[in-house]
Amino acid sequence: MRPRLLDLFCGAGGAAMGYHRAGFDVTGVDIKAQPRYPFTFIQADAMTFPLDGFDVIHASPPCQDYSKALRPLVHRSYPRLIDPVRDRLAAAGVPWVVENVPGAPLPIQGTLDGAWGTELCGTMFGLLVWRHRLFETSFPVGSPRGCHHVGRPINPYRRDNDAYWGHDHSERPFRAAMGVEWMRRDEGREAIPPAYTEYIGAQLMEVLCGQRS
Fold first, then answer.
1. Assuming Cys at both sites, which of 39, 107, 177, 213 could form a disulfide with 26, CB separation 3.0 to 4.6 Å?
2. CA 98/CA 35 separation, integer angstroms
3. How would residue 125 be classed by pLDDT, with cut points 50, 70 and 90?
4. Which range marks the domain in which residue 79 is found?
């Protein structure tokens, strides 16, 4: 029987797909409808949705107000939810993961005060995307290797690299490089590659196996 994972602020399911590949039964929750979410989906407020009945909880709270790259482009305020989300997950009593962008108050490695975290990039998994994301966890976690930034990544905000794009400017090549081909344009821009959470999920499985032994 697969362990049950709750995917809060789930979006279109980039994180969910990685956890599914790692062996989890995933349920997604988002305040917005997500018609292309590939697993069980519930439209609800992630900050009030009941957390009981799940073996693991993942949360990707809004990143816009933490992102150094997006901040100059965003013309309205977004909530900073990492602290209340972390407190809520810690009180649930099961392993948890919080994901966000560089600039968010999450550790990029284990710290002396007992926090655990890692920073992942597409190049660590052989992907043609430089998409850095931070993961804070309730358990020790590491990175597979360092970033390997060579060549030129596929970037949805640049349309001048025909060597990668060919003549297809629909962003399908970018979504294919990310591994989120089922998504649409804006969904893909906000997603994380499933490779990240497949890697985190494999370590989660070891934690759960240790708890049961």
1. 39
2. 23
3. very high
4. 4-212
Neighbours of 144 (CB within 10 A): 11
Strands 56-59 and 40-43 come out as unpaired
Q: What is the pTM of this model?
A: 0.88
CATH code where residue 143 lies? 3.40.50.150
How would residue 71 be classed by pLDDT, with cut points 50, 70 and 90? very low
Using DSSP bridges, classify how beta strands 116-120 and 133-137 pair: parallel, antiparallel or unpaired. Answer: antiparallel
Question: SS3 helix, strand, coil % of the chain, rounded to 5?
Answer: 30, 15, 55
Identify the band that residue 63 occupies on the pLDDT scale cut at 50, 70 and 90. confident
- Chain segment 23-50, per-residue pLDDT in tens: 999 999 999 999 999 999 999 999 999 9
With a CB cutoff of 8 Å and minimum separation 6, the contacts of 26 are: 5, 7, 16, 19, 20, 39, 40
Q: How many domains does the chain have?
A: 1
Radius of gyration of the chain (CA): 17
**Is the torsion defined by CA of 7, 12, 14, 16 positive or negative?**
positive
